[in-house]
Amino acid sequence: MKRLLIILHDLSAGGAEKMMARLAGALVDAGNDVTLLMLTGGGVNVALVDPRVKQVELRSARSASAVPALASFLRQNHFDAQLAALTHVNVVAIAAAALSGTLARLHVSERNAFSRDKHVNSSLRVRLAYWLAPLLYRLIPNPVICVSRGVAQDLVETTVARTQDVTIADNPVLDNDFRDKPPGCPTHRWLQEKTSPVIVAVGRLAPQKGFDTLIEAFARLPVRNARLIIFGEGALRDDLLAQAARLSVADRFDLPGYADDPMAQVAAADCFVLSSRFEGSPNALVEALSTGTPVVSTRCPYGPQDILEDGAVAPLVSVDDPQALAQAIGIELAQPRGRHRQTRIDAAARFMSSRAVQTYLAALLGRQSS
């Protein structure tokens, strides 16, 4: 049994936090002793943490101020491997590991397209972290774990990081028995009593997710009775509602906020759409495939091309092209819903926890673990 530590800012509603919570449980299933440490603490994804995973909250006011407390924790507790996630947390973890003499056991991970993600947050501290991180990645002894080949390639091509500074591990998106689990019951009224085709999307209401392009595409659909639901919250809520009103689709569009079980909604929908401008490895796309529901995705950097096998599993369209997106959605709605269902489910199976955790163990411990 190996003692493993996962370091996060908190367990808020982001995809990285959700995947780290799932990874912690999968590592326990693989026979390891796992601690999940939060620099601050709390968040809605706490509910996803396996009760066998130990939780530690440093309760720092911000990530940067957690360095002394984290260094002290690392000195007092011996772990066989330490894994940090997200760029600003990586920088904090590298500093703390250097101070505590545990740098040889530290691994950091990048979850998104670095060249795009660094422009999302204008905070001076965050910008400094993004400037500093690639320099540190060249110096630390272990390669950066990237969630997809595209994320790794982007880090190498757009920063000072070298090919030998990166490695790849798949996200543990799905339970091992996902094929046998019936979907939950949808909670949205349009999905409970469906009277017309329903399109569903899931994600933060942020520019990265391209929901403005999706609404524009929705307005162009020839299927005039179709409905669109986007599950999620974020700063663009009012903008998206205003856009729907301008395009005269407000009566067929809804932003109900977060869903406790978003995949129950997707499983009941007629089409799932990923309209993102960039990603790392979009977990929602994998989850949607696992339900068998038809999907359409942008060919955004990075992840969808790999997950959808360059369009062999489901349609890929150009980023920010509402006409192409509308056409692809329209084609999917016109076909029998069960067409190619098994192909979609089989494509999702690569991201089962039991498979993905082995790629992490190989990266963290330098070998495959049974």
UniProtKB/TrEMBL annotation:
Matching Gene3D superfamilies: Glycogen Phosphorylase B
Q: Check the record and name the SUPFAM superfamilies matching this protein.
A: UDP-Glycosyltransferase/glycogen phosphorylase
GO MF terms here are: glycosyltransferase activity
Presence of keyword Transferase: yes
Annotated Glycosyltransferase subfamily 4-like N-terminal domain ranges read: 14-172
Q: Which UniProt keywords apply?
A: Glycosyltransferase, Transferase
Q: Which domain of life is it from?
A: Bacteria
Tell me the Pfam families matching this sequence. Glyco_trans_1_4, Glyco_transf_4
The region annotated as signal peptide is: none
Q: What is this protein called?
A: Glycosyl transferase
Q: What is the lineage of its organism?
A: Bacteria, Pseudomonadati, Pseudomonadota, Gammaproteobacteria, Pseudomonadales
